[in-house]
Amino acid sequence: MHLTMAFGGPPEGEVELSPRDHAGLAALKEFQKNEPGYSAIQSTRPQTLGYGLADSPVAQVARVR
């Protein structure tokens, strides 16, 4: 099984979050708001990106390195 972006639920009871935790949650929220394109493509038609990478001369060069 291959999982990406697997998230767990919050622990039971009250948990105090650190400033680093709050910053991480804010960054995640910002990413989900402004950059959902890749995730949307991967969730509906994952092979679409593969075709572009396989057919692109740039991707071919990058794979050789």
From TrEMBL:
InterPro entries: AB_hydrolase_fold (IPR029058). This is Uncharacterized protein. It comes from Streptomyces thermodiastaticus.
